[in-house]
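S.,

Sequence below, as promised.
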Amino acid sequence: MDINLLDQTPTRGAPSARSVLRAWPAGRWLWAGVGAVSTVVVVGLPTVLIPNSVFARAVPVTWWAWPVLIITAVLAGLLGATYIRGNGTPGAKPASRVGMLGGVLSYLAVGCPVCNKIALLALGYSGALRWFAPAQPWLAAAGVGLLAYAFHRRLRGEIACAAPARTSV
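The prediction came back faster than expected:
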């Protein structure tokens, strides 16, 4: 504990990430949930993690694709919610490219290696299976890591800019 030299009352340090998350209003948590569900749908349909008749997958889904998608969705939802003002309305803060890059890498990681047109054009069918498929777990780790980093940075900004508690005199 520090002593505030102006009013000689003990003050605590900056709030923890947990206390900031607990203080989020219901509207922000609602946006986080909507963002997470939207991420599952937007990534799960074209990668055919969610079976559908519009998209096809030539290679079976890997065992780690769903856990990566769930972690990605939770982090993307939480990250998106940091752009919502305290009253539940979208704010005008600029977006970070780190979170977007993390989402794209996670999308590439859970997708079919031979269904990715860029990998297929660059490497061919056998090259995509030989070179791109083994790299997908690394893309997943990098994507999740970048999303976690972006969320940490956004949350740290909320902690650093938290308004001090008012005390009565």
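Residues 16-160 form one domain.

Coffee later?
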